[in-house]
Amino acid sequence: MSRYLWTLLAFAALLCIGYAEDTETPQVEDEKECLAAGGICVHISNCPVEKVSAQAKCSKQDFGAVCCHSANPPTETRCEKLHGACKTFCGDNVKLTQAQDCPSDQFCCALV
Description:
single chain; alpha+beta; two-stranded antiparallel ribbon; 2 helices; signal
């Protein structure tokens, strides 16, 4: 009986893990064209319709990736997590203004 119970529990755990992996939003990598336009590549479910770029594209369109302006959740304020780096200068089109962890004399700039 004990062996049967352990087998059943192990199967249930594996089933739950598999379900969690299947329901996660696909990971999308940033692309130069989108970053240069001031956006980031995200899954379409993570971008409000009005923020989807009409000009810049992400090559992973088949997987639901879009170039999105201000796509990151408002809770994310770390420059590195926003795919940027703290710099003393960068163009306005690559500044990530939601980042709050750069020194006061630097800007968070999208890595292109």
